[in-house]
Design brief:
The structure holds two protein chains of two kinds.
Chain A lengths: L2 H9 L2 H28 L2 H16 L2 H14 L6 H26 L3 H9 L4 H31 L11 H11 L3 H31 L4 H4 L1
Chain B lengths: L4 H12 L2 H28 L1 H15 L3 H14 L6 H26 L3 H9 L4 H31 L11 H12 L3 H34 L1
The chains are: A mainly alpha, B mainly alpha.
Chain lengths: 219, 219
């Protein structure tokens, strides 16, 4: 097997890596928005419950969560595909991190923004939707990009629950070919090729968001 | 076949017996990551070709999954005749992976010190070494203490990755019980809960430390 064959063999898993990431975002984005906003708006017992759910997904060791849901859901009668379980666990874990960015972004806005909305006679949902969220999400966009990179990298875990992603392909190739240096270097490079452009995009975004006179800070 | 509480409780002592290994691995990895990360950041700050190279290495590490690094070290080192225990390899992998993140922590910690501090040190004709030891480092330590604590929690939550290298930490013990009894749910849930409890307690401690440091810094 030439180096090129090894490289191509690992890239055969790129589809699964991309699918788990995309499917994971389906869980991560709504979770981050709903729970981030809920944590910002609620108080007392309700806030405690919201924080509890967020902390469960955010502070648990994601590899253990994945195994628990992979092995335990069938025991209680819920059979989901390995893909669905992986996307859910990795997605909600990433969503837990992102929810903190949503909440922090909302909290960082000057209270004058909300008060101005109220003075204009806007309802609370309208203030949130039209004034607060757009500013908070723009300000936090670099953090979301970082969370996306973490999600892509976390998909390497799905190789442990039988999905043939890039990491799984590397291990398969390693069984027929004793060339660990080439195989695992190629695996690292494959992830680098996927994640580094996202990181660069995040840096560009960060420079734009932080630019003086950008619209969100100009008022 | 639901969740057997009695069986779960009976697995607690075995899994909890590995909590020392888990904490030790996390602590040593964190110290290793901090040492490598500090070295990386110093070289990067110095600039030149070495600085650019190290900057790229940091980006590379941050763009690749920890699992891929663990496999890389575990299979590539023996290829070059370097035979180390799986725990040593695991600690090396975690140290290397998190050094990329801690380098950024050191960078932020140093950047946050006002320029006047190093200028004043120079005006007092302190040597560069004395300036770093007596002026920069103490202030940097205050800036990095909280992020360092947060990364310790991240590293702690990454220690179960070492189970794939057969390191006898808590997830490894849980799988040992699972393969003996063919019951996965209970030991995995127990391991997950112990990790969650550790992460929450340490995070809480870090938050309190952060508040105290902020109070000291405001004086």
């Amino acid at each position: 097997m030439s180096l090129f064959d090894i490289w191509l063999g690992i890239l055969q898993g790129l589809g699964t890596t991309a699918a788990v990431t995309a499917y994971g975002l389906v869980f991560a984005v709504p979770f981050a928005l709903v729970f981030g906003i809920a944590q910002y708006l609620t108080q007392g017992v309700a806030r405690l419950l919201v924080t509890g759910v967020i902390e469960f997904w955010r502070s648990s060791a994601v590899i253990i969560l994945l195994f628990i849901f992979y092995y335990a859901l069938p025991v209680v009668g819920i059979t989901l595909s390995a893909m669905t379980v992986s996307a859910m666990v990795l997605g909600l874990n990433a969503g837990g991190y992102a929810s903190q960015a949503v909440r922090a972004g909302l909290q960082a806005l000057p209270p004058g923004q909300r008060e101005a909305g109220a003075a204009l006679g806007l309802s609370r949902p309208a203030i949130l939707l039209l004034i607060e969220l757009p500013q908070a999400l723009v300000a936090m966009s670099p953090t979301f990009v970082n969370t996306l990179i973490q999600l892509v990298k976390a998909t390497a875990l799905v190789s442990l629950v039988t999905l043939t992603d890039m990491t799984f392909r590397a291990k398969e190739i390693a069984q027929v070919e004793y060339n660990p240096v080439a195989i695992y270097t190629a695996l690292l490079l494959a992830f680098f090729v996927v994640c580094y452009p996202i990181a660069l995009a995040g840096r560009w975004l960060e420079a734009r968001v932080a630019a003086p006179g950008s619209r969100s800070r100009g008022i | 076949m639901g969740f057997d509480l009695a069986f779960a409780l009976s697995s607690v002592p075995t899994i909890l017996g590995a909590v020392g290994t888990t904490l030790c691995v996390a602590l040593v990895s964190c110290i290793g990551a901090a040492a490598i990360g500090f070295f990386f950041e110093m070289v990067r700050r110095a600039g030149g070709i070495a600085g650019l190279t190290v900057g790229f290495v940091i980006d590379f590490i941050r763009s690749t999954p920890v699992l891929a690094w663990l496999y890389f070290l575990y299979f590539v080192l023996p290829f070059y005749g370097i035979r180390l225990g799986s725990m040593t390899v695991g600690v090396m992998g975690l140290s290397l992976y998190y050094s990329g993140y801690l380098a950024e922590v050191f960078k932020a910690g140093i950047d946050a010190i006002p320029k006047g501090q190093s200028e004043a040190a120079r005006a007092l004709s302190l040597s560069r070494r004395d300036a770093v030891i007596h002026v920069i480092a103490p202030q940097m330590l205050r800036n990095i203490a909280a992020p360092l604590g947060n990364y310790f929690v991240s590293i702690l939550k990454a220690t179960p990755y070492l189970a794939v290298l057969a390191v006898p930490e808590m997830l490894g013990r849980a799988f040992d019980i699972a393969s003996e009894t063919y019951r996965y749910t209970e030991p995995l849930v127990v391991a997950g809960l112990i990790f969650l409890a550790l992460a929450l307690v340490i995070s809480h401690g870090v938050k309190r430390l952060e508040r105290r440091l902020l109070a000291v810094g405001a004086r």
